[in-house]
Amino acid sequence: MNNTIKMLIGAGFAVAVAYYASTLSSNATHSSFLVLAAIFGAYMAMNIGANDVANNVGPAYGSGAITMGGVILIAAIFEAMGALVAGGDVVGTIKKGIIDPAAFGGDPMLFVYAMSAALLAAALWLNLATWLKAPVSTTHSIVGGVLGGGIAAGGFAIVSWGTMGKIAASWVISPLLGGVIAAIFLYIIKSQILYKEDKLTAAKKIVPILVAIMAAAFLTYLTLKGLKHVWKELTTILSFLPQTKKPTFGIALAFGVIGAILTYVVVKPKIVSRISGMDNSRADINALFAIPLVFAAILLSFAHGANDVANAVGPLAAVYDALTNLAISSKAAIPLWVMVVGGVGISIGLALFGPRLIKTVGSEITELDQMRAFSIMMAAAITVVIASQLGLPVSSTHIAVGAVFGVGFLREWLDSKDMGEKQLKLQEAVEKYDAVKRKLEALKTEEDYKQQIELMVELKYKKKKVKSLKKSLRENYVKRGMVKKIIAAWVITVPAAAALSAIIFYVLKGIGA
Question: What is the residue-wise DSSP string for 8-66?
Fold first, then answer.
């Protein structure tokens, strides 16, 4: 499918959303701004699908456990399902409490301009990041958009700088936590299975435990992040559940432990049976993690749809609420049509433009196999659970990509102990460089300047060769250029989206004047 057809499909979805929005308001002025916000919301949803969703399924694709068509199908279905089934019915109109609603002076149209600008700015930034092949945080894009629109409407005093400080801290906390946890799990797999002489016997013992831990992590994560919006309904239907407003950490952990025990009981004999026909090789051990990766992709997609889609389309719900009630609310109901825009838009954006970022996360940062991808997706779930309980600000995007970094750097550190072909070449190049350097030092007392110059030129050449070989060794594990580009994109996401939003706010205000 060429880009023209993709653009036409995306435009068709936006037009359909705009048409539906136009039927919801009888006031011509209000209707026009609702239509505009709906178009921005549809555009935003498609860009989330193109960029953010790659973090959930990229490792599974990069490892070869699931094909590109398979990960797109899984993510499209379960992202939309998460949004529509467990996406919630109420959202905070001011994302993360970063600006004070009172600063709009009770003018709902100023609020509408700011939220519409936030949507478009976040979508434009995500679109640019996708084109640059940089996975960035949807949440941070929206935060930047709301920040810029809020400052344009009410000045810098409108901003909660303490909250912004926490968000900035997540740029460091999220990737570090994700990277460390992913590296720990990969090291366990390597040290307890791959480095053993009898890998199959070790795998019979360790793999069921790891899969059970995965089940515990994902059930805990899914309960906390995916079921909180429908917990009241669940407790009504299932009266034996604790009658709380939302699932507590204790409840989620209990679900996780029960799930882990059941998973271990079911998986253990299957693993033992499967291993009986295997060779004592890395490739066969690697294949044991393929099926768990499919479930990990499903659960991460569902939880992402339940938790993040509502946040992404929150500004559209806020605009609809403000135009309907002609007032600014701190909380706004999310109409079903807005959640449909979010869920369906994400699926369309993923199918049309998602492969670009899926390939980046899955194969262009470091080489992944099933064991490495398993460690990354475990880290994504566990880190969110730990961080949420400690009150640490984290980004699911930064966690997942940080986990990819962690796996790559661990491989680099472990494999640097082995002397492979490239290490031998590097050692040889260093020895030649040192020999020329010693020869040049010995000539400095003589007046043979011609030979000194020749040796200096040779020394410079050999130094470049040593540097090239060192760089080549590193690039086999983690692509330094990709790391720098992604981190730079993370750092500028909030300010870039904020600047775009401020500009768009003034344009919309001018149109509405």
Answer: HHHHHHHHHHHHHHHTS-S-HHHHHHHHHHHHHHHHHHHHHHHHTTHHHHHHHHHTTSS
Nearest CA among 508, 421, 428 for reference residue 473 = 421
99: phi then psi, degrees, rounded to nearest 5:
-135, 160
Alpha helix positions (H), 196-335 = 199-225, 231-237, 249-275, 282-287, 290-325
Q: Is 130 left (phi over 0), alpha (psi -120 to 50) or beta?
A: alpha
Q: What percent of the chain has pLDDT over 90?
A: 29
Q: Which domain holds residue 468?
A: 421-472
What does the DSSP 8-state code read for residue 89? S
- Rounded to whole angstroms, the Cα distance separating 223 from 242 reads 13
Residues 484 and 460 in one domain: no
Write down the pLDDT at residue 213. Answer: 93
Cβ atoms of residues 264 and 209 within 8 Å? yes
Number of separate domains in the chain: 2
Shared-domain flag, residues 454 and 500: no
Length of the chain: 513
Distance CA 40, CA 186 (A): 41
Examine the domain organization and report whether 65 and 117 are in the same domain. yes
Residues 294 and 438 in one domain: no
pLDDT value at residue 87? 66
List phi, psi (to 5°) of 332. Answer: -135, 140
pLDDT for the residue numbered 462: 74
Neighbours of 133 (CB within 10 A): 18
Whether residues 408 and 437 fall in one domain: no
The pLDDT value given to residue 183: 94
**Quick one: 316 and 242 in the same domain?**
yes
Work out the mean pLDDT of the chain and round it to a whole number: 83
Q: Is the dihedral of CA 176, 181, 184, 185 positive or negative?
A: negative
Backbone angles phi, psi at 446, to 5 degrees: -100, 170
HSE of 156, CA atoms in CB hemisphere, 13 A: 1
d(CA 124, CA 45): 11
The Cβ of residue 513 has, within 10 Å, a number of other Cβ atoms equal to 6
Inter-CA distances, 193 with 410, 419, 460, Å: 16, 22, 45
> Rounded mean pLDDT of 396-406?
90
Q: Does one domain contain both 9 and 106?
A: yes
The packing angle between helices 28-51 and 336-353, to 10°, is 40
Q: Assess whether 362 and 460 both reside in one domain.
A: no
Is residue 40 scored above 90 in pLDDT?
A: yes
